[in-house]
Fold:
Amino acid sequence: MGRPILTAAAMRAAEQAAIDAGTSVETLMERAGAALAESVFLHCGTRPVLVLCGPGNNGGDGYVAARHLAERGIAVRVAALAEPNSPAAAAARAGWSGEVADYGSAESAPVLVDCLFGTGLTRGLKAHVAARLGDLAEAAQLVVACDLPSGVASDSGEILSPIPRYDLTVTFGALKPAHRLMPAMAHMGRVILADIGIDFSTNMHEIGAPVLPPIANDAHKYSRGLVHCVAGEMPGAIALSAVAATRAGAGYVRISTSHPITGLPHAIVQTGSADLGDERIGCVVVGPGMGDLPQLVTLALTSPAPKVIDADALRHIGDPRRLHGQNAVVTPHAGEFAALFGRMDGSKAEQALAAARESDAVVVYKGPDTLVAAPDGRLGFAPPAPAWLASAGTGDVLAGMIAALRARRMDAFEAACGAVWLHGRAAEAAGPGMIADDLVVAIPTVLT
Structure:
């Protein structure tokens, strides 16, 4: 897994534990402000900077950052929304030797640093405050957020009041869910994580590059993994899954179908037999192109092998508890998620975890902010992927990729996360004009 992610409450607890262990709030603020200044300098160069400071500790980080930028010889101005309301923020302001302008009348600068509000915001900015932030951002060449853009709910990614688009977001200790949840994610720009010396443990991470199983010197096609794909009414979709499984490293891929599918690579075996009891099967794929054939779901669930259940199959499962003991990965988009699990309360992250617990399956909740949730509480947040992945058939490709990694004996959660990461990178390699067939071709170029 990649960078850690903490909710607002978990972040507050981690900070308090650091304070209890002897690290002062002022020390944490100094580290955060210095890291913010370093990131602004590296990303924005020596352009003049306007730092907007709120009344809390996020504003305190801004005062510290302004001091560090000024020490580098950069022209820095500070504008305050209100007086500091914490001792640490007051001390940080006292350490800033320059003038502090009023937020409402401050002049714009080429670089705008938003230190108004960060983690834990529960309501939007007042209309005139949000409007002023938007005006200053529009006048700037580069816009930077300290921790989170002001106006974002850190746990849900909800936009509580209008926010501009940022070029850079610098956060501290851990990412927050909003950094990787829509709609907020689309406004973040590049997200930098700074280490400020806080220790914690978490089950939530950004998904990183997978470590794929090595191919043994004595490997054969079955030891590398047999993926069995169940064809339905629309053969093109399951064909995409099968070719993707082959390209993602499965040793043997076959499709059970009553009608031969034309155009498949010769390496993929087509058979009229659907013997899903074959003990050599490493993973079964059912759902892509299945159509209205619920008996295929029932057939797949008779197999003792791990399963990837996608597309039409998700609408025919019925009770999610039917998946208990199936060692399954399910891959719904929002509509399929609602059809399988019903309407759930909470953020997308909370819904994904609840669904994984209810179904005893790994849930890949697809979208521009794809999440991977495991029944044991692990949660992976996908890094941003190209918007052009929103194209017919790309989900079928992902199903095949997950199946290949499962057949290679990767843990279900790790296989799903690994495939999601590779899927996004393959889309980058394929380029904006890609279709799902191009995505399949790009898979070998991103295998690590």
